[in-house]
Design goal:
heterodimer; A: alpha/beta; Rossmann fold; six-stranded mixed β-sheet; four-stranded antiparallel β-sheet; 27% strand; globular; B: alpha+beta; 2 domains; three-stranded antiparallel β-sheet; 13 helices; elongated
Amino acid sequence: MKKVSFLKIEKVSKVYQENGAESAVRVLEEVSLEIKEGEFVCLMGPSGSGKSTLLTVVGAMNRPSEGRVVVDGIDVYGLSDEKRADYRREYLGFVFQQHHLMPYLNTAENAMLPLATLKMSAKEKRNQAMMVLERVGLADKALRLPNQLSGGEQGRLAIARAIINHPPLVLADEPTGALDTRTGREVMEVFLDLNAQGQTIFMVTHNPDNAALAHRIINICDGRIVDEMKEG
Amino acid sequence: MRISTIALANLKRRKGKALFLTAGISIGIGTAVALLSLSNSIREEIGSQLDRFGANIVVVPQSNNLALDYGGVAVSSVSFDVKQLKNQDAVDLHDIPYRDRLSVVSPKLLGAVKVEDTEALLAGVNFDDELKLKRWWQITGRRPVAEDEILVGYEVARVLGLIEPVAMAEMTSHSSHGSHGGGQFKISRERLQIAGRQHRVTGALAATSGPEDRMIFASLAHVQQLLQKSDQLSLIEVSALCKDCPVEDIVHQISDRLPHAKVSAIQQSVRAREHTIERLTRFSAVVSIVVLGIGALMIFTTMMGAVVERTKEIGVLRAIGFRKAHIIRGLMIEVSLISAAGGIIGWGAGMLAGWFALPYFAETEISFEIQPLLAVGAIAAGLVIGIVSSFYPIIRASRLDPSEAVRYV
């Protein structure tokens, strides 16, 4: 796993200028934030507050209108498009709310999807996939298709895919949002387990119970950070 | 797990769409292959027919005295020529290296003769060879066999009153009636005096609009005797099979063998053949281009639809670190596999279609050859059409901004 001294978001603003609209929509307003290695940070806020936009900005997928995102001293948006793709592959793991698994690939293949572009032997990739599936408790379901897994299992598979590259930072956008309470808890337990093993996690959630499990809770409203709570 | 694994899995998942695209390319390639192979075979047939039907080389004596004309070919006034063509020349002509390609050699002696009160052109021919050469001739009656038997051209027969029209009722009861333009005729007078000797008219030619309409035909030996030109020839008509060799080569070889004769190719025949073949090839090319164009358009629209449909998937792949080049590679693998399959199936289907269709287009039995080069061309064409028509949709997919795609994630 690459070591990240810190992830620093410096005065990030995001303005959407819709086609034909006279006025621009400011989704983020000078957001500044630091995430330390090994931290579990939850981002909370009402719908439309800019949580998901901030997550995609941190995820090097959504160029901010102003401000910088710096990882290991590198300005992420100063990189070329292709380098930014490499950055996403090497530094980040994404867990999406709808999981977005490839329905035509089995569990093991879905897990090793980020390895598809790497020059590794098929055996190495498979071993790595089995290790990560073991870690999330899906090793015995490696050959199943996503539609043959329960909601909780799909969530765990999405996490397996996010961490197979050993990324320094895992970004999760409401990973339990589409799950019932029991399966949501099941997925959260995987995150807690990962974090306990040193994985840095930045998670967007609506669920205060999930947020309470994090080291730090950041509340965002109308694109601004309005509150920050630390554990204990 | 490689990019190709994803591409293959995607093809398996979207079997219907993959089959649809493959079918589209197959139809385009198949049509082109069928037309090309058909036109190749028909070209062969036309070439063979044009080579066989009618003379394409004429051998005449070297002469400066042009007195008579036969089919656009000047026939010298025999009595003043120094270097005469002899019967042996028609035999010697078979000694040339390309002798296997000589289909028909028809020697002739021509001369103006007095026929009753008028003058006509009398031709001495070997009827076996002449009838092979002039397959379009329609004879009312029968071909001459005996020495004093003659075959008359339509105009000669009409002017000399050798034929008369046939009434409709008679036409149904008699089978040996000739036709001229829109009507029918029969031989009404069988005796004709030529150069003071009686001859029997055994047959009359239907109108051809050619020089033979104004000619009388008898056996070569008889005409040589009648015109007192024993062993002499006015010209030799040659039908050469020049499908795979330039007619000029045969002309040169005959010229070398008969240095005292003037040998020339009938350019009209060669040009007509080239023109016919060119038109056929052009027609096939245009139809193939249109069908392939429609196929390409179909692939383009299907791929554009596929890109829209897969925006989410492409967005996820970009989000987890796939470069644009990786997206392009994956989609290119899919398109290449579909296109290659389309090319192979199209080639097979085209060859089959051509094979089945050939008897309906060809008049004679000709061979249908499997051309391995055409298979390579079909696969290459399938790949080019598939890749070119998918190029823009694929590039567009690779340029999907993850920030756009993440609207879905």
